[in-house]
Design goal:
The structure holds two protein chains of two kinds. By secondary structure, chain A is mainly β. Chain A has four helices and 38 strands. Chain A has one domain: 8 Propeller (Methanol Dehydrogenase, Chain A), CATH 2.140.10.10. The longest helix of chain A has 8 residues. Chain A starts with 10 loop residues before the first strand and ends with a strand. Helix content of chain B is 37%, strand content 0%. Chain B has a domain of 88 residues: Cytochrome Bc1 Complex, Chain D, domain 2 (Orthogonal Bundle), CATH 1.10.760.10. By secondary structure, chain B is mainly α. Classes of the chains: A mainly beta, B mainly alpha.
Chain lengths: 556, 177
C-alpha cells in the first residue's frame, strides 16, 4: 500500500542510507511513464517487482527489479473513457495501487476498480462503481483490509454525493456502501454509532443539516487516505468538502462532510464521527491521511490518530472515541480562531465568512488548505511528523451557480496569493507530544509531494521545481538533492532491492491542482483559473515543464 | 434665426448618428438545431474549398447584446466551472491562441452543441440554439476576437482578468502586426 502500513506512518526500517552517506546517492535507473500529467502515485514494490500506475489513461507497469535496468515485466492498459478527463476537478491524477494476495488493485479515472494478477498482469475482475455522467471519478489509491478493497469517489466540485465502498477482493462485488450524506441508513449509522461530541449526535443529521434535497448533491467525497487499526477493528477515513463551495446554498452543518468516520471494516457500520469543519466555507476537504500511533499523551498511554488537516490544524484524536486531544495550527490560519475542545467545534472567524456577491480578501489557508492530499511521514525515532504543506492565502467571492449533472457545482470565484513570508510552500517537522514545530523549511512553491522517513534518519520529499531532496530527520539540514526532469508531486518510497541494498524511488511529473497550470497549459492572465490556484503559480511555467519519469536512487 | 437653424441641423445630425444596434431580444427557443458541417482543420485534400458558414455566425459575432448575454450564460451553464473565466481549469484555457477544435463561430458552436471526446460535454437539448451562438461569440471575445465596441466591459464582480473589451487578440499577443 502507498502508506507503507495500515497505520500510514510512511516510516521505513531500512537504514543502509543514512545521514552520513546519503550525499553519495546516485541514479540506479529511470523509466518514462509516457504520460505527461501529474504523477501523484507511489510506486509499489513487492518482491522483485515494482508496480506503477500512471495518471489517465491509468496504465499499470510492472518492472522487473531483478534484471539490470528494471525492464518491463508486463503492462496493462485499462483504456478508460476519454470523457472522464472532463469531470476530473484537478488534473487527471491517480494516487497509486495496492497489493494483496498476489493481486494488484487500482482505480481508473472513469470509475472502475480493477484487480490484476500480479505475476501476469491479466485482469481478474473489473468493477464499474463510478458514473462519469454525474461527475464521479476515482483518483485515490485503494486500501485492502480483511479481504475487502476500500474505494471512495471524487467529485466534490461536481455536486457528487460522496461514498466509500468495500469490494470483495475475490470477485469485486460490492459488500457494503457507506454514503457520507443523507439518511442514517445510507450512511450506515446504527446503534453502534457513538460520536464523542453533541454536535454529531441526532437522527438523520445527514438530511436535517441541509436544505431539502441538497444532501443528494452535497459532496462529502472520499478521495484521500484510509487507515486501519486491526486491534480496534476500525478503519478511519475522512470526508470531503460540501458542495457547492458557495455556502449560501446550503445553510446548516452539512453532515457528514469535512469530517472523519471510524467504521467497522466488515460491515461499514459507523462507530464515531468528528467534523473538522462544520458548514465549510472555504473548500476544506477532510480527506488527508491519518497516522495511527500508540503514544504517551500527557502521561497516559493513548491510542491516537494524528491528522494535519486542511483547515490548518494539526489534530490529535483519541481514535477509540473521536475525542480531540489537541488542535494546534501548523502554519498561518485566519479563517478560524481555534478549536473549542469542550464542544469540539471549530471557531469561525466572522471576518472571513464567504457568501454570494461578497468579496472576502486574504483568507488563510486557501481552498487547497494549509495541506492538501500530500501525505506526511512519522518517525518513531524522533517522534516527529514530517509535513509537506502549502503557505497560501486567497480572495473569495460567492457567485450564483446552477446544478447540471456532470458539470461543476462550485459557485465561487477564487484567486490565491502567496501566504505570509512569500514562500508558497513549507516542509515542517512537528513534535506531536510537545504540540509545536521542531523545525520548518521554506520552499518557493507549495510542497505538493508526499514524504518518507527512514531508520537512517533521512527524510525525502520533492519540490515543484523538480528537486528531490534528502534532509536530516533531526535537524532538517539539507543533505542531498537531485534535479529531476519535471516538478515532483509524487510519493517517495524506499525499498530493499533483490540485491539486498536500499533504494529510493520517486515519480517526477508536475501537475495536480497546484501544477495544473503546466500540465493543463492554463492561462495565468485569468486569476481564477484552476479554481484560483493559477494566480499563485503564475511563474511555474518558467520553472518546470510537464513530464512523467520514475527515478530510482541507490548508494554506489 | 441662424443659431436656431444650426442647432436644428446639429440635433438632426446627432440623432442620425444614433443608430441603435439591432438586438434580437427574443431569441429562438429551439434546442440544438442548426446542423451544418463544421470543419476544424484547414487541411483539405484536393485544395481548399469555400468554408461553409452559418448566417447566425455573422449576426451574433459582433453584437454587444449577444456578447453580454453570452457572458451571463457562460456562468449560468457552468462553463466557468471548467474553463474558469477563460484561463481554464478542468477544461482548457479559452483566452489563449490555441484552438483544439477550431476557432470559428461554427466550430465553437459545434463544440458546445455536440461536445468533444476528451471531456467537453454535449449541451444539445440543454441550451437553446441561439444561446449557444451567444456563448460562441462570447468565447471568441475572451481571446480578443470581438470588436472592443461590442465586447463586455468591467464586471460588477471580482475582476479575474482585464475586461473582454480590453483583451488583446491572443493570436498576435506580444508580436508586432
Amino acid at each position: 500500500m502507498p502508506a507503507k502500513n495500515y497505520a500510514s506512518t510512511r516510516f521505513s526500517e531500512l537504514a543502509e542510507i543514512n545521514e552520513g552517506n546519503v550525499k553519495n546517492l546516485q541514479v540506479a535507473f529511470t523509466f518514462s511513464t509516457g504520460v505527461n500529467k501529474g504523477q501523484e502515485a507511489a510506486p509499489l514494490v513487492v518482491g522483485n517487482t515494482m508496480y506503477i500506475v500512471t495518471p489517465f489513461p491509468n496504465i499499470v507497469y510492472a518492472l522487473d527489479l531483478s534484471k539490470p535496468g528494471a525492464p518491463i515485466k508486463w503492462k496493462y492498459e485499462p483504456n478508460p473513457e476519454p470523457a472522464a478527463q472532463g469531470v476530473a476537478c484537478c488534473d487527471v491524477v491517480n494516487r497509486g495501487a495496492a497489493f494483496a494476495d498476489g493481486r494488484v488493485f487500482f482505480n481508473t479515472l472513469d470509475g472502475h476498480t480493477i484487480a490484476l494478477d500480479a505475476n501476469s498482469g491479466q485482469p481478474i475482475w473489473n468493477a464499474h462503481i463510478g458514473n462519469i455522467n454525474i461527475g464521479e471519478t476515482i483518483t485515490m489509491a485503494p486500501l485492502v483490509v480483511k479481504g475487502k478493497v476500500l474505494v471512495g469517489n471524487s467529485g466534490g466540485e461536481m455536486g457528487v454525493r460522496g461514498w466509500v465502498k468495500a469490494l470483495d477482493a475475490g470477485d469485486g462485488h460490492v459488500v457494503w456502501t457507506a454514503y457520507n450524506t443523507g439518511p442514517d441508513k445510507d450512511v450506515l449509522i446504527g446503534p453502534d454509532f457513538k460520536p464523542h461530541y453533541d454536535m454529531d449526535k441526532g437522527k438523520d443529521l445527514g438530511v436535517t443539516t441541509w436544505p431539502p434535497e441538497a444532501w443528494k448533491i452535497g459532496g462529502g467525497n472520499m478521495w484521500g487516505w484510509i487507515s486501519y487499526d486491526p486491534d480496534l477493528n476500525l478503519i478511519f477515513h475522512g470526508t470531503g468538502n460540501p458542495g457547492p463551495w458557495n455556502p449560501d446554498l446550503r445553510p446548516g452543518d452539512n453532515k457528514w462532510t469535512s469530517g472523519i468516520f471510524a467504521r467497522d471494516p466488515d460491515t461499514g457500520a459507523a462507530k464515531w464521527f468528528y467534523q473538522w469543519t462544520p458548514h465549510d466555507l472555504h473548500d476544506y476537504d477532510g480527506i488527508n491521511e491519518q497516522v495511527l500511533l500508540d503514544m504517551n499523551w500527557q502521561g497516559k498511554p493513548r491510542k491516537v490518530l494524528v491528522r494535519p488537516e486542511r483547515n490548518g490544524y494539526l489534530y490529535v484524536l483519541d481514535r477509540t472515541t473521536g475525542e480531540v486531544l489537541s488542535a494546534k495550527t501548523y502554519g498561518p490560519v485566519n479563517s478560524s480562531k481555534g478549536v473549542d475542545l469542550k464542544t469540539g467545534r471549530l471557531v469561525e472567524n466572522p471576518d472571513k465568512l464567504t457568501g454570494t456577491g461578497k468579496v472576502v480578501r486574504d483568507i488563510c489557508p486557501t481552498a487547497s488548505g494549509l495541506k492538501d492530499w500530500q501525505p506526511s511521514a512519522f518517525s518513531p525515532r524522533t517522534g516527529l511528523l514530517y509535513i509537506p504543506h502549502n503557505n497560501l492565502c486567497m480572495d473569495e467571492e460567492g457567485v450564483e451557480v446552477n446544478y447540471i449533472a456532470g458539470t461543476p457545482y462550485v459557485g465561487m470565484n477564487v484567486r490565491m496569493i502567496p501566504g505570509p513570508g512569500g514562500n508558497r510552500g513549507a516542509f515542517t517537522a512537528w513534535d506531536i507530544a510537545a504540540e509545536k514545530p521542531a523545525w520548518s523549511l521554506k520552499e518557493n512553491f507549495p510542497v505538493w509531494s508526499g514524504a518518507v522517513v527512514t531508520a537512517g534518519d533521512v527524510v525525502f520529499y520533492g519540490t515543484m521545481e523538480g528537486w528531490f531532496k534528502a534532509v536530516s530527520a533531526k535537524t532538517g539540514e539539507l543533505l542531498w538533492q537531485f534535479k529531476t526532469s519535471s516538478g515532483i508531486i509524487g510519493q517517495p518510497i524506499t525499498y530493499r532491492g533483490p540485491d539486498g541494498h536500499q533504494y529510493v524511488a520517486i515519480l517526477s511529473g508536475v501537475g495536480g491542482w497546484a501544477g495544473a497550470i503546466v500540465s493543463g497549459d492554463l492561462d495565468p492572465r485569468d486569476a481564477t483559473a484552476a479554481l484560483g490556484f493559477v494566480n499563485a503559480m503564475k511563474d511555474l511555467k518558467n520553472a518546470t515543464t510537464a513530464g512523467g519519469t520514475l527515478y530510482v536512487f541507490r548508494l554506489p | 434665426m441662424r443659431p436656431i437653424v444650426l442647432l436644428l441641423l446639429f440635433t438632426l445630425l446627432a440623432l442620425a448618428a444614433c443608430q441603435r444596434e439591432e438586438r434580437d431580444t427574443r431569441p429562438q427557443s429551439a434546442l440544438g438545431s442548426g446542423e451544418q458541417p463544421t470543419p476544424v482543420t484547414t487541411l483539405e485534400p484536393g485544395g481548399q474549398r469555400p468554408s461553409p458558414t452559418d448566417n447566425k455566425a455573422a449576426s451574433f459575432e459582433a453584437n454587444a447584446f449577444h456578447l453580454s448575454e453570452g457572458k451571463r450564460l457562460f456562468g449560468w451553464f457552468n462553463c466557468s466551472g471548467c474553463h474558469a473565466n477563460g484561463g481554464g481549469g478542468m477544461g482548457p484555457a479559452l483566452m489563449d491562441q490555441k484552438w483544439i477544435y477550431g476557432s470559428s463561430m461554427e466550430s465553437i458552436h459545434a463544440t458546445i452543441r455536440d461536445g468533444r471526446p476528451n471531456g467537453m460535454p454535449s449541451f444539445r437539448d440543454k441550451i437553446p440554439d441561439d444561446q449557444i451562438w451567444e456563448l460562441a461569440a462570447f468565447v471568441r471575445s475572451l481571446s480578443g476576437n470581438a470588436p472592443s465596441s461590442a465586447a463586455p466591459s468591467r464586471n460588477d464582480d471580482m475582476m479575474a482578468h482585464p475586461s473582454e473589451n480590453r483583451m488583446p487578440d491572443a493570436a498576435t499577443l506580444g508580436k508586432s502586426p
